[in-house]
Amino acid sequence: MRQQLYFSPTLRDIPQGADIPSHQLMLRAGLLRQTASGIYSYLPLGRKVLRKVEQIIREEMDEAGGQELLMPAIQPAELWEESGRLDDYGPELMRLNDRNEREFALGPTHEEVITSLVRDEINSYKKLPMNLYQIQTKYRDERRPRFGVLRSREFIMKDAYSFDADEESLANSYDSMYEAYTNIFKRCGLDFRAVQADAGAIGGKGGTHEFMVLSDVGEDTIAYSDASDYAANLEIAALPDIYEKSEPPEAQIEMLETPNMKTIEELQRGLQISSKNMLKSILFIVDENPVLIVCRGDHEINEIKVGHAFDSDNVKLADDNQIASIIGTEAGFIGPVGIPEDVMVMADFAVKTVYSGISGANQLNKHFKNVHPGRDFQIARYGDFRFVQDGDTSPDGQGTIQFAKGIEVGHVFKLGTKYSEAMGAVYLDENGRSNPIMMGCYGIGVSRTLAAIIEQNHDENGLAWPRSVAPFDLHLLVLNPKQEEQYDLGEKLYGTLKQQGYDVLYDDRKERAGVKFKDADLFGLPVRIACGKKASEGIVEVKARQNGEMEEVHISDLSTYLSSLFNEC
């Protein structure tokens, strides 16, 4: 492709509102342009990279037995009513009505559509297992789109769905997709981790993993062991029960006046006591029943773990009115001592270590001191109810927990029968009995993957693409087209390199050499070849973008040199 004709508008300055490198460079290098908030047009350079990523995905999905189809972006609302998600999904679901006032939604995901399709076409165990996937545009009405395509309202996604007869077959499908995803992200040149995760709005009670690209701009926090392969999203990172119960103190429980001491920090300052010896109590409403969760003052209660402990999706923090009605006080003074009998009390494992603690007294501006779990209040069950902290023991017993930031680019779920039961997707087994189909769901954010690749492959001068996803293999520059030797050599090499199978961007523009070098660094193609002052001698300058190594090469040796160079990419 001749750059003089190529639609690749560049920007010298960082665009306003572009806060992270991938967003800045995608705009500056002409990969995309914003059409509206969270909505972008992909220009030719950006589209070529997307196609490279999509091709890698297709090859690995096909190798794993996936079959590609294409489902509609506009989905009937009644399908979402069948699954029970029409009202539960939230305001991110974009809704619209046709001329007959029939309600539709712009698909943020396709569980409902694929389930309705399969229930009408698959009715026998003989047609299972099956894996169907698509690459398509999705829509979510993000409250605050930001970071370019990392959080946008329109995005490109690969979503796959497996259909199996039983849990063993589903486990095989899940493992196959896990391996395919590992291959995909390796081929994209990414440094990533597969971490244990929460199913979230997609649902399902089985296994689930997120594929996280390590990046300081990531919105997710990964908790990982410094001595093993354990890794999990901070939301669900587990903690082992390594705590031993302390003996009760000789001192008995006493009331303290604690005016204006509602928080752990205020109690620390006012009482000069370590937060490790305080009890933090949070009232939840779980399936309409009050539950008090107690943790140590230096820890934070994890609402997702509370839901998992009760196997419930209906977990909410009690509001001020509920606290006043159930406990008779306000948040900040709640405690487990003397709690009403109809309130279940559960405690995090670490509460066992509290010796002579401070807790709320369930009265305004009052706390108890010398509180001991088991002596002064009863605990229905100990469990893992808190967020992990840096330095905690890894749940596999190997090493300690460390933190890293990550960009989620893929997510695999075992859905089980959540959608098949709700929507009547069943099959007949070999005995003629009807059973709900076991389902799995597997998503990759294609446009997010593009941004993640940039976050890990750039420098102060621009992009630095891995060859597997680079929009072109080579950037051929004629530094001074007015010089006949340079122009003729450039034209010759352009034809030769294309014949050798390289995808070449040929900068034949009538621009200064400095402009061409800056654009070449900005575009970040794997190899740059410059026809300059030594063109008359048949010598070109070859630069590898990722490591910056530069070499003068005679054109008679260029083919061999490039083969060696690309083998290292």
TrEMBL record:
Biological processes annotated in GO: prolyl-tRNA aminoacylation
Localization per record: Cytoplasm
EC number(s) given by UniProt: 6.1.1.15
Reactions performed catalytically: tRNA(Pro) + L-proline + ATP = L-prolyl-tRNA(Pro) + AMP + diphosphate
Keywords: Aminoacyl-tRNA synthetase, ATP-binding, Cytoplasm, Ligase, Nucleotide-binding, Protein biosynthesis
UniProt GO molecular function: aminoacyl-tRNA deacylase activity; ATP binding; catalytic activity, acting on a protein; proline-tRNA ligase activity; transferase activity
An example Gene Ontology CC term for this record: cytosol
Keyword field contains Aminoacyl-tRNA synthetase: yes
Subunit field text: Homodimer.
Family annotation (PANTHER family): MITOCHONDRIAL RIBOSOME PROTEIN L39/PROLYL-TRNA LIGASE FAMILY MEMBER (PTHR42753), PROLINE--TRNA LIGASE (PTHR42753:SF2)
Record's function text: Catalyzes the attachment of proline to tRNA(Pro) in a two-step reaction: proline is first activated by ATP to form Pro-AMP and then transferred to the acceptor end of tRNA(Pro). As ProRS can inadvertently accommodate and process non-cognate amino acids such as alanine and cysteine, to avoid such errors it has two additional distinct editing activities against alanine. One activity is designated as 'pretransfer' editing and involves the tRNA(Pro)-independent hydrolysis of activated Ala-AMP.
Family of the protein in this entry: Belongs to the class-II aminoacyl-tRNA synthetase family. ProS type 1 subfamily.
Protein name per the record: Proline--tRNA ligase
Recorded name of the encoding gene: proS
